[in-house]
Amino acid sequence: MARSLSQMMLKRFAAYPLARSSAITSRSIHQGEVRYSTSVPSDPDTHEDFRPTSKLESSGLSLENIVEQDVKENPVMIYMKGVPDLPRCGFSSLAVRVLKEYNAPISARNILEDPELKNAVKAFSHWPTFPQIFINGEFIGGSDIIHMHQSGELKEKLNTIVNNQGKEE
Which pTM does this prediction carry? Predict the structure, then answer.
């Protein structure tokens, strides 16, 4: 009677009890497949001081107000997957590279850190995908700014910001 490798591995792993973990990302094996979970731990043994928190929640502002404030106070604001120095998505990476071509000051928020922020940004812009770029308070788009870059339209929008930045220094 021949056994498949996955059946042998499952039997081998079944002999070892799974340790209880309070890690944010966990991995489990079920009938030969691997599943990942990114749920926040609800382990009662974890002290409140060590549970994940959101800096946005503790600011006292609603997420809608935070998005509105971000867009109003930052000449170039990008909501993206990751951060400008370490994008977590090809589209976000492309958008950041295009914006960096103009040496404009970029402000960013990582939407992967807070799903509620992601939804608040979508509601604010009425746009479903990321990255989302705002220039001087105006929603410009996402990685499709490459077309604006090629046509010269993006240069026009960023000129005043870059020129004002040069005067401040």
Answer: 0.65
